[in-house]
């Protein structure tokens, strides 16, 4: 997944220009299949386990994307333009919080990808942002976004909340009961209960 911002028209108030999701757990089960089967009244029926496994993953990813959290750790690569290095206090804004910084890299004037030493930056969780204490002076100005940071967003504590898990089960039930695209004139809405269960945990955008 890549999200890019056009600096000429973007309303993005932060200094990152593009975001790539570079790693995501798409195999580990979050909610046990026995719980999923109980939700669907499939007591003792294991003949659909492969289907339920896929639906559980899909529902979990929908919850993650809706809330902007990671049920399991997720990796991102965040790109920055030269302007990010021109302010007195050099900072690299991050699109996600509760992260560990895996690397900060840049292309130098010789077009060589260079890694910033770990003692040349630190993570400021109050931002969230990376504060660069040893800014590179030989950036490749011919590249649109010569700087990038690789970070891993930690698993959210919301993963253990019964309300969040129940919202995922409601989504899963909706996917199970509507396994093909809806073509009738009545819009089949995602269960309204999902909105109410997840609303308290969704960040407000001001």
Number of domains: 2
User: How many DSSP helices?
Assistant: 4
Taking Cα atoms only, what radius of gyration do you get, to the nearest Å? 21 Å
Model regions low in confidence, pLDDT < 50 over at least 5 residues: none
The computed structural class is alpha+beta
**Share in β-strands:** 15-25%
Question: Helix coverage percent of residues?
Answer: 10-25%
Termini Cα gap: 25 Å
Largest sheet: 6 strands, antiparallel
SSE layout and pairing:
Blueprint: E1 2-4, E2 16-24, H1 33-39, H2 49-67, E3 74-80, E4 91-93, E5 99-107, E6 113-115, E7 121-124, E8 129-132, E9 147-153, H3 162-177, H4 192-198
Helix pairs in contact: 2-3, 3-4
What does this structure look like?
This protein has 206 residues and is α+β, with helices and mostly antiparallel strands. The chain folds into two domains: 2-22 and 74-153, no CATH class; 31-71 and 157-201, no CATH class. Helix content is 24%, strand content 24%. The chain has helices at residues 33-39, 49-67, 162-177, 192-198; strands spanning 2-4, 16-24, 74-80, 91-93, 99-107, 113-115, 121-124, 129-132, 147-153. The strands form two sheets. It has a six-stranded antiparallel sheet, with no helix packed on it. It has a three-stranded antiparallel sheet with strand order 4-8-7, with no helix packed on it. Strand 7 and strand 8 (129-132) form a beta hairpin. Helix 2 crosses helix 3. It is elongated. The mean pLDDT is 87.
């Amino acid at each position: 997944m890549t999200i890019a911002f056009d600096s000429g028209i973007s309303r993005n108030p932060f200094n990152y220009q593009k975001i790539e999701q570079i790693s995501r757990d798409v195999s580990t089960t979050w909610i046990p299949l026995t719980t999923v089967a109980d939700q669907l009244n499939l007591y003792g029926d294991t003949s659909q386990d492969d289907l339920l496994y896929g639906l559980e993953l899909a529902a979990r990813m929908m919850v993650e994307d809706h809330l902007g959290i990671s049920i399991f750790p997720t990796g991102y690569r965040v790109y920055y333009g030269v302007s990010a290095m021109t302010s007195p206090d050099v900072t690299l804004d991050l699109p996600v919080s509760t992260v560990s910084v895996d690397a900060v890299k840049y292309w130098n004037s010789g077009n060589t990808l260079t890694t910033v030493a770990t003692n040349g930056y630190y993570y400021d969780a109050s931002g969230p942002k990376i504060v660069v204490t040893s800014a590179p002076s030989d950036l490749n100005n011919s590249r649109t976004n010569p700087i990038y940071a690789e970070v891993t967003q930690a698993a959210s504590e919301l993963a253990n909340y019964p309300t969040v898990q129940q919202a995922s089960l409601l989504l899963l039930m909706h996917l199970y009961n509507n396994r093909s695209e809806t073509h009738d004139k009545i819009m089949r809405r995602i269960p309204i209960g999902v909105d109410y269960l997840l609303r308290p945990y969704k960040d407000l955008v001001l």
